[in-house]
Amino acid sequence: MNKHDTLPEAEVELDTGKHWRRLSPIAMLYFVASGFKTLVQNGLYAIPALAIGSQTTSITTASWFIPALGGIALVIVGSAALSYFFYHFRVRNNHVEIRRGMFSRRHINLPFWRIQNVKVERPFYYRFTRFSVVILDTAGSASEEASLVAVSTSYATTLRAQILASRSDYLQHRNKDEAEAEASPSADESPDQDQEQVINTRSVKDLVIHGITNNRVWILLGALVPFFDNLAVGINDYLEQYGLQLEQLAGSGTIAWWQWGCTWLL
């Protein structure tokens, strides 16, 4: 075995002891970027309001626009500072523990064997530093449950190798136990136990209702509000080519609004 097959940076001490460790101040960049990402995601819901407001006034020339941007930036930086000061971690006894949050405190305790995968990433704002982000994917969770957002790259690679080695040992022991259990099946087992059973089904109508009630559908409709008038004019011109009047077909004097609603629901 050559030196490249051994654990990377083996001289790095993983165990932090019983005392909690704080992240490097460079973690502020990570929390600021996360806050900006959250702002952009939530800002999608403001698109309808901005689209309507842009029809009546110029938002960028409003007197409150610059102060609003300053307030948003202050909130993002303040939130990042709080996230940094209330984030602590420690690694000991083959466990990763993370304690974070100010108003909603959260304590995560992950044994090495429960961690399915470990990713070491270096965002662009870490490229000129010696720090990385360790992302821990845990068993039984489809999302990333925990991460060490600013540790040295040497510590991150050593931690990753140790966690994966511990996970491999756990899987080997589990597979060995399962193989022994299969070799001696119990007397009350029957072939019908492996048959699949449908628990629940969904019709096309259910899927359509789910799509209509999805929030992002209403975001799209809200963004199209400024174009509704042009759309109505286009439909009316198209119907007039065939001698039909939209007002006669769907006017309030012809069909009540609640009748239209019942028609769409049925």
Which strand order spans the largest sheet, edge to edge or round the barrel?
A: 1-2-3-4
Proportion in β-strands: 15-25%
List the total number of helices: 9
What is the structural class?
alpha+beta
Assembly status: single chain
Low-confidence stretches: 1-10
For the sheet with most strands, the description reads: 4 strands, antiparallel
Name the overall outline: flat
Number of domains: 2
Q: What is the ordering of alpha helices and beta strands?
A: EHHHEEEEEEHHHHHH
Radius of gyration of CA atoms, rounded to a whole number: 29 Å
Number of strands: 7
On the 0-100 scale, what is the average pLDDT? 76
**What is the CA-CA span between the terminal residues?**
71 Å
- Measured as a percent range, the helix fraction is 40-55%
